[in-house]
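User: Okay, second chain of the day. Same drill as before: sequence in, structure tokens out.
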Amino acid sequence: MDFFATLTKKQKTTAFDSSSEMHFFLDNSALLADLPQFKGFMRATAPFDVIRANIILRALQNKELIQNALGRINKHGTDEEKAHLKETMEAFLETLPYLKEGKERIFVPIFPRTINRLYAGDFEKFDERPYKSLLRGYSESLAIDPFDAYGYALYDSYFTKLILVDKNDKEAVFLDYDSHSLFAVNVDGRLNSRIALFDKYLGKTYTNHLLERVKPVVAAYLAGDRETMIDALVDNGLISRKLIFKIYYEERKVFSKIYR
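Assistant: Same drill. Structure tokens below.
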């Protein structure tokens, strides 16, 4: 019996399917239909997969919004606005989601950092090859896997609503209020584990001070201390003792067959 899979299977129904993240996905997922690299994300149903799909969708939206804004200024802007294009665009850029890396901002993480510098302010390079193609549409040859390129930092950005709880060199753990989950994400931007909170055997679900309550769970998880993690889940009212007893019971049955 996989511990984390059992937590997900036994979790109470959450509000994720009616959340703003799910609504955004349903409203915009059709944008992925003609993009071979990302088309698979159209089938996302699990919360973490929807969040990943939305990162790509917001990147695509940023690309179009920035390009459209540049087009309007170049066509209808004043000489002053055109002469100081970076300053003209700055207030608009700050309204968009982005990933902060040092002094740089990544607005379109489906492209590498070099191309993102164009979208963040080096607008004159759009007139040069091979970047002209970006203004004409989606460039498949320039696209990259954003999760490989930017790792778990991408989830700790304005592209998601996730809250970073703690991290080490190998993993970062995020809290998602909508799905009542902790997501442990590795350096390649992939999900290692989902700790689904609030199982069906709990009484009333209390979400007050949730961030503080999950911190000892995350600390134990990152330390590789399973028993302390389980104790912290129970002690903080995040998982029922009944479910833990059921898990231990099933594990003992499996072990008894192995070592019979």
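The chain has a mean pLDDT of 92.

User: Thanks, on to the next one.
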